Amino acid sequence: MMEEYKNKVVLISGGLGDIGRAMAEAFLAEQAIVCISDRFEQHVAKERWPLLDGAGACLFYDQVDVADGRQVDAWVARIQAEFGAIAVCIANAACVTIKNFSTLSNEEWKNEMAVNLDGAFFLANACAKSFVDMRIRGSIVFLGSWAAHAVHQNLPAYSVSKAGLRMLCQAMALEYAAYGIRVNEIAPGYVNAGLSKVVWSSNAELQEKAKAVVPLGQIIEAEEIAKQVLWICSDNCKHMTGTAVVMDGGLSLIRP
Q: Among candidates 133, 233, 143, which has minimal Cα distance to 176?
């Protein structure tokens, strides 16, 4: 990236998950100042990711509930006050409930919408307004999913939240384009991360079955998503906004 991200401030929600950590490490390797948040207290966060104790002055963690707009606004304001202009915002925090509509509770539905959609809006819009105030041509990336356009019967709340996220991305992209702010989405397919990683690590046969369904025959690794995020935030993509980059190995070709 030719030091494109050197000393640039990058915010990542859901930073303690597999994909969040991979993105943080990718930006750290590019000498960015990386500020992550998640729902865990400081001591728990350091236990889950020891790098938080050894990354020096380049990696910072805050406990933030993205479903609480006031917490998100306070986090963004504090980071801007402490480190200066924010350059990249990645709305990554998400949760998933594996149930169909007949067994999904109202509270489970509300929780997924609060984290996956409301939380993404709170963070992205707070950063967009910061970009405008600081006159920064910043970049916002939503971590979406191919579930936004392909029906998943056992992931109804997750799928609906990701479909809403895609429209949020497009609507924000149009409004903030006048300020030179770019808003895009990365929409992965099967990823060896999160709940899937837990299941597959205890049952390799299930992972092989999932891999066999993918036309390209591969499961995506978190580090591969991180590389795509670096690319989409870079000047290589300066004309790209409101775009959903679907990286699903061709799953959408057989299950549109």
A: 133
Looking up residue 162, the CATH number of its domain turns out to be: 3.40.50.720
The per-residue pLDDT for range 90-117, each reduced to its tens digit, is: 999 999 999 999 999 999 999 999 999 9
Q: How far is CA 60 from the centre of its chain?
A: 17
Q: Which has more confidence, 246 or 202?
A: 246
Q: Is residue 133 part of a domain?
A: yes
Q: Residue 25: CB partners within 8 Å, gap ≥ 6? A: 51, 226
How far is residue 88's CA from residue 251's CA, in Å, rounded to a whole number?
Answer: 29
C-alpha 39: how far from chain center: 15
**Where does residue 105 rank: exposed (0-12), middle (13-18), buried (19+ CB within 10 A)?**
exposed
Token couple for 133:
């105030």
pTM of model > 0.85:
yes
Cβ-contact 206, 200 below 8 angstroms: yes
